[in-house]
Amino acid sequence: MSESNSYTYKQGHHRTVTRNHARRTAEVEGAFILPHLKSNFTILDIGCGPGSITTGFAKYVSEGTVTGVDITDEVLEQAREYVSSQDPKPQNVTFELGNVLEGLKYGDASFDVVFCNQVLLHIPEPVKALKEMRRVLKPGGFFACRESDMPFRWYPYPPGIQLSDKGGSMMHVFAREAGFEPKKMAKGAGAEVHAGEEEARFFGLHMLGRVEGSTEQYKALGATDQEIDLMKRDLKAWAEDVDAWFAILQAELICWK
């Protein structure tokens, strides 16, 4: 499948954007599904990004496989670099180009688990994506996602940071509309916090780098030069504030087929 520009992640896949994504782990982002995994399961990770979560799942399905899918070769190259850097390198992890909105190449009922993290939030047609994920899921298998609920919580919360908030999350509603039964869902939530001088500075400067590396994407979404400059100024100031504190409520959902 060729790369598609129709549904590209709006902030792009430059390493200034994916650097923080690569810090994500199966033990944190996927903690809520680990008790449900069996060693022979096949897992499909949609929107795998730089591959750290995908790779992390490998040891939990040592007799199975983990397949990471994303929409650009740029980020898949990062994922392959990541898995190759592991010692020992997992042998049951692969990464492939694919777009869930254009249809996945896999047959019906191909995977025991379909997982995504911070993906549906960025997809313009989440119900359509969920229908395709459900199609490739085996009967008795489950779909799971972890998605941020908006707005993010910041302190301090100056205007430039407010401009960076976006979107919302109703994943269990979208899943029901895609055909999953409410009685076969498990709904939960977790929290992600960045506080303390070193951690807040890393996160704030990372967010600043994402804005600097995605200026054209922000403009395409309607941001003005003045708004982008304000975002940069206030993110830098937040990163240097001794009282800086940031939290996200993470909605977690499991749907059995």
TrEMBL record:
Keywords: Methyltransferase, Transferase
UniProt keyword Methyltransferase present: yes
Gene3D superfamilies on file: Vaccinia Virus protein VP39 (3.40.50.150)
Methyltransferase domain segment(s): 38-149
GO terms assigned for molecular function: methyltransferase activity
One of the protein's GO biological processes: methylation
InterPro entries linked to this entry: Methyltranfer_dom (IPR025714), SAM-dependent_MTases_sf (IPR029063)
Protein name per UniProt: S-adenosyl-L-methionine-dependent methyltransferase
